[in-house]
Structure of Redox-sensing transcriptional repressor Rex:
Amino acid sequence: MAQDHKIPQVTAKRLPLYYRYLEKLHLMGKQRVSSAQLSKELLIDPATIRRDFSYLGELGKKGYGYNVSYLLQFLRDFLKQDEVTNVVLIGVGNLGTALLHYNFYKNRNIKIVAAFDSNPNKFNREIDGIPVYGIDSLKEVVQLFRVEVAILTVPVHVAQEITDKLVDAGVRGILNFTPSRLTVPVGTLVHHIDLTTELQTLVYFLKNFPEDELMEQDQELENEDE
Ligand code: ATP
């Protein structure tokens, strides 16, 4: 059974990777897998894998490894992979349109059910089967589809205003692609993805640090997170 205690964020981020690979093994008819095999395929240190799984409970046997079906079912329950999460996207510009085309097709449990824009040239149509509505219909559609998660790809100056509307409509999780720091009430989660800053940081680190120093830093960051 899934444990109720909190697991480290770094572990939580790896669970979907394990899940996807186990699903593949399961489809291939494999019944067991060792941490060494998982490590080779996912490029994650075997000790890290064992530690990750140990947070979830007694999942493997020494010398046997992990039972694929059991682990898959366990992670499915843990990640609530049986439930489909309806998502909306606000701001059908270049990035928003790209994400609509992508529509997270690899994960059948996440579905963008609708998109919104304020520009009349952009709404009342479909993109890859996803309806695009005027922003005025936001609350109605969010409530109709019981949407809890939104992707924000609007210009920075309207990000907070749209966030307030989302919260008012009942959205509890926002994936924020704008550079704006959003203010939300307790109980609402914002994950911030600033692609430009991420790229700039990557370039900075590549230019300023040799490879072995970077690896040490990674390890330190991981330890801090735990
Ligand atoms: P493009 O200029 O090709 O639309 P872009 O990504 O450069 O793409 P942005 O200015 O970042 O455009 O705006 C993203 C999208 O957000 C646009 O489609 C715009 O119409 C929309 N948008 C702007 N303000 C709002 C708002 N208040 N509510 C909903 N959508 C909005």
The chain has a mean pLDDT of 87. The longest strand covers residues 110-117. Residues 90-96, 116-119, 122, 135, 153-155, 158, 162 surround adenosine-5'-triphosphate (CB under 6 Å). The first helix runs from residue 9 to 27.
